Inverse folding.
């Protein structure tokens, strides 16, 4: 017992009293912060599996009350929601894959020296600080014949300047120039070097870019709002907006829920279930993004740190 | 030919064409991204001239009649112009004042957590709200702040207060907007600061410990001086969006009741230019152009001042 204590004593300088007070305050600070961050999310989760009446009386505070899955059952009936869910999956997968490839290729090019690089850099950075504005962008899309198509949901916001710079910094700082010189010695061109050397070494940044682009696309509703008209093309967030619109003051948009009355045991019952179904919609739509983050988290934090050091 | 002239650089156009011939593979890799920026960023910049024209779809951009500053005058003489400028500016200004220091505070405090697992958990947790969509965030606000069955109003009535109709009150629009913004993004915005703090040489801390510095001393004399350059950079970047608006979020939180404070420029551009049944393209473009020009001016100005005063600048 004393031996261990002695050992500890010698390992490092003992913390002063002031430091221990500081640590205490810091711990309390973080408990409060984590409560503020996580409680709203917990509340949504437990409300989604509780009884509608308990939710309305605000009895659901810490644990689910009268556990029931009727909200999720109702959500399964909302065919509009599932159609848009598939759309969103398609837009997110196809769009982010394309974004990652295009960004990485350009980031590699910008990490090398060539004449005209400064000009290209300037032209790209400039778009971060100045844009034509919503209406010219919209009219441009109409003129290109891309209004109300699936293609625009993928091409719009294809490359983000910020991500491009993060990727460039990553390539510059983690892949040694000697590798390039060696590859060129062996007769490799830029294509060979990029595909055979840079890509295999860029796992971390690919993970980071996938999460950035994937989540941005999954969560975006504004592009769809401006660029789409056909309901069959709507992404999830746009339909979700209608679902949640029934929460606004006037409450006149209960049409969304009323439309499914036949399958849910009459109008009264459908609207009662809708009280929890709203929470379920939130859970169902948020889970893919949060899961993606949690799975990628290991690479993610590391990659973001490297990329942002100089970015 | 003197010796000097052989060292003179050839014209840029010549050098670029040479580099395209020699490094064509590099340009092919760059091409898709470049094409995207040209088509989706620079084409609209060319199209912005419709702000000075009476745009008719049938006549095209250059075919429409040139009307000069007509739409700018119309906008600046419109009744709500002043209110919208004030609303946009104040929303962003308050957001900046309240929201800017919080990520710095979080990063410093996180850096001081010495329990590794708890620290990892805290760091993971504070990023999570960033992954929630704007629509869901707005939905959560509506649910929690609902006048009849929202949890906040239940708490208010339980403690003897009168329920507040948050989303219809002009006075509550800014707190809701800014508060939810902080909740969603403050954690995420710590990334840059945490990266800076992890880059600090540990010897500095060791030396400070030996000299008897407390944790608070180390924050004051090591952490904060290291964070200042990056914080100033972020401040400059944020100043560039003082008149920009997160249109998508404001659009979701705007109700007939809170128009007095929620009526901001970005939403107005959307509603007259896109949502209106008879869209006024030229008028909306003119407003958008004003906004972008002012934002661009502000960021240049702040950047210039900062460079003069502190040598810290974006470019």
């Amino acid at each position: 017992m004393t031996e261990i204590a002695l050992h500890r004593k010698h390992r490092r300088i003992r913390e002063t009293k002031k430091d221990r007070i500081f640590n205490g305050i810091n711990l309390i600070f973080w408990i409060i912060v984590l409560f503020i961050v996580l409680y709203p999310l917990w509340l949504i989760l437990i409300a989604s599996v509780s009884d509608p009446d308990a939710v309305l009386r605000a009895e659901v505070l810490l644990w689910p009350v009268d556990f029931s899955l009727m909200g999720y059952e109702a959500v399964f009936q909302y065919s509009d929601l599932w159609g848009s869910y598939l759309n969103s999956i398609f837009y997110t997968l196809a769009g982010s894959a394309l974004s990652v490839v295009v960004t990485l290729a350009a980031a590699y090019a910008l990490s090398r020296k060539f004449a005209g690089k400064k000009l290209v850099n300037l032209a790209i950075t400039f778009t971060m600080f100045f844009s034509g504005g919503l209406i010219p962008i919209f009219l441009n899309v109409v003129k290109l014949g891309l209004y109300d198509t699936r293609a625009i949901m993928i091409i719009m916001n294809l490359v983000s300047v910020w991500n491009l710079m993060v990727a460039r910094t990553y390539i510059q700082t983690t892949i040694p120039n000697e590798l390039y010189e060696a590859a060129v010695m062996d007769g490799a061109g830029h294509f060979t070097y990029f595909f055979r050397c840079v890509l295999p070494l860029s796992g971390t940044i690919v993970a980071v870019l996938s999460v950035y682009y994937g989540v941005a696309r999954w969560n975006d509703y504004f592009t769809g709002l401006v660029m789409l008209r056909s309901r069959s093309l709507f992404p999830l967030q746009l339909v979700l907006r209608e679902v949640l619109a029934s929460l606004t003051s006037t409450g006149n948009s209960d049409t969304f829920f009323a439309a499914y009355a036949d399958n849910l045991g009459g109008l009264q019952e459908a609207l009662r279930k809708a009280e929890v179904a709203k929470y379920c919609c939130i859970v169902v739509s948020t889970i893919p993004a949060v899961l993606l983050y949690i799975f990628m988290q290991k690479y993610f934090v590391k990659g973001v740190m490297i990329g942002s050091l100089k970015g | 030919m003197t010796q000097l002239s052989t060292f003179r650089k050839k014209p840029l156009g010549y050098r670029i064409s040479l580099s395209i011939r020699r490094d064509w593979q590099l340009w092919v890799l760059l091409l898709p991204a470049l094409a995207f920026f040209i088509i989706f960023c620079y084409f609209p910049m060319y199209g912005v001239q419709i702000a000075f024209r009476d745009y008719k779809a049938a006549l095209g951009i250059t075919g429409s009649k040139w009307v000069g500053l007509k739409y700018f005058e119309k906008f600046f003489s419109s009744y709500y112009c002043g209110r919208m400028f004030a609303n946009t500016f104040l929303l962003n200004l308050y957001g900046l004042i309240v929201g800017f220091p919080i990520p710095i505070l979080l990063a410093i405090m996180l850096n001081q957590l010495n329990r590794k697992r708890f620290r990892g958990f805290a760091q993971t947790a504070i990023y999570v709200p960033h992954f929630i969509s704007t629509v869901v965030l707005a939905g959560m606000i509506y649910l929690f702040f609902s006048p009849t069955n929202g949890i906040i109003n239940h708490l208010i009535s339980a403690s003897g207060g009168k329920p507040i109709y948050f989303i219809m009150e002009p006075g509550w629009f800014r707190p809701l907007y800014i508060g939810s913004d902080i909740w969603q993004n403050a954690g995420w915005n710590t990334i840059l600061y945490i990266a800076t703090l992890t880059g600090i040489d540990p010897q500095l801390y060791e030396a400070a410990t030996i000299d008897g510095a407390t944790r608070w001393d180390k924050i004051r004399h090591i952490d904060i001086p290291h964070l200042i350059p990056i914080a100033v950079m972020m401040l400059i970047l944020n100043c560039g969006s003082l008149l920009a608006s997160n249109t998508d979020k404001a659009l979701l939180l705007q109700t007939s009741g809170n128009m007095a404070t929620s009526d901001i420029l970005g939403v107005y551009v959307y509603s007259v230019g896109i949502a209106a049944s008879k869209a006024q393209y030229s008028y909306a473009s003119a407003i958008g152009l004003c906004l972008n020009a002012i934002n661009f001016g502000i960021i240049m100005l702040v950047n210039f001042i900062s460079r003069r005063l502190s040598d810290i600048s974006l470019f």
Observations:
- Chain A has two domains: 2-48, 72-310.
